[in-house]
């Protein structure tokens, strides 16, 4: 009696990505109350700069109390009644200014091209509703954010076809990989409507190079398809190389007023850069007025509440604050990233070199019992249940090579990260010890087999040799 949406499983809730969260919820680590619990390292949350936001609120108490800045006028009623799905103009202006600031003011954004949505989740789904019919396909480079299976496919009926990227070139997008994915979709009789990239990438923590961005623009231009650039991590770039938005590429190639630019759409959110996933603040930026108009109508299903818009318009209009916040947040992310990379390095575990994001893409291929996804799952289960860390296996991000894991570093205290590193160290040491013991036993077995199978004179010779050596001593 229920619809197929209720029974179909394209939501992806049964992926190990979400299962790990469930295990964490059952037994969460707490330094005092549950020191043996599971540490959550599978959640891309930014908790490193809350104090900066909190101190802004302390300095501006009138804003949280629904009062106007420098003015005692109460705007509670105004906000409570506001329901225009075009959003508060003051907020949209402040958001586009912030988006430009993150990109070093190399590009500007027109607030009329902006659609507000309840987070990037809603923005991505809305864009899919705008560009694809049920059964159409979107190409996505692997590994990719596990939530895309839910956001892009579940309610829209669209399909994802992976663009397989390889560790051999640091998981970079190549022309052959793009063409292969396109052919693969055609083989499956799927009409390709676009490519979706996350720049900087979740889970790689790397920003796209100019070469990759150029490839993408050329590809969507020759195939006559769309490009969605999810730039939710644009403010988390903490080291070289810097981040280039797809908008800058269009501008630099003089494509801004062309049909190609109309097929390029940006997704943004304050969930990562400001660490506010609970406030559900997202946006679509599109150069196509038909997309803007349709997405605005659709945004009725997932609006940002007006008091949130009001609060954020005040925070983001404070230029001094945003400047300090962005640079301090980047500095803290860089420091934390280094702690994780060095901590893992000490145990012989290597991370993909990265410059952004709230996570590292970690190579644990040498710890697999077999070079398969079964081997990856076996290792992941040990890490969750025996080591007590919830990390995300590469298979949940559709990585085509087993043995890679995403480890988040910005959702915990430094002390908790230190405990996690200690746990990894003990785990790796126990594996090394076990492997040495089993190798030793294998050697002993081999030697005893050899000595049994060797002719008697070899044994006698070796015995004589040993006697000679000990006589010489
Ligand atoms: C690449 C990417 N897009 C979208 C989202 C969803 O973000 P939001 O909380 O704004 O819905 C996430 C969250 O982790 C993400 O990593």
Beta-strand content bin: 5-15%
Count of DSSP-assigned helices: 18
Report the principal-axis shape: globular
Query: What level of helicity do the residues show?
Result: 40-55%
Radius of gyration, in Å, reads 27 Å
Spatial order of the strands in the main sheet?
2-8-7-6-5-3-4
* Major sheet characteristics: 7 strands, mixed
Secondary structure layout:
Elements: H1 4-7, H2 16-26, E1 39-40, H3 50-59, H4 61-64, H5 76-81, H6 89-102, E2 114-117, H7 119-131, E3 137-141, H8 147-154, E4 159-163, H9 175-187, E5 192-198, H10 210-223, E6 226-230, H11 246-252, H12 259-262, E7 264-269, E8 282-286, H13 289-298, H14 306-317, H15 319-346, E9 350-351, E10 359-363, H16 373-387, E11 389-390, E12 392-393, E13 404-408, H17 414-453, H18 456-472
Parallel strand pairs: 1-11, 3-4, 3-5, 5-6, 6-7
Antiparallel strand pairs: 2-8, 7-8, 9-10, 10-13, 12-13
Helix pairs in contact: 6-14, 7-8, 7-13, 15-17
Pyridoxal-5'-phosphate is lined by residues 44, 119-121, 145, 147, 198, 202, 230, 232, 269, 271, 277, 282.
Organism: Lactuca virosa
Cofactor: pyridoxal 5'-phosphate
Family: Belongs to the class-I pyridoxal-phosphate-dependent aminotransferase family.
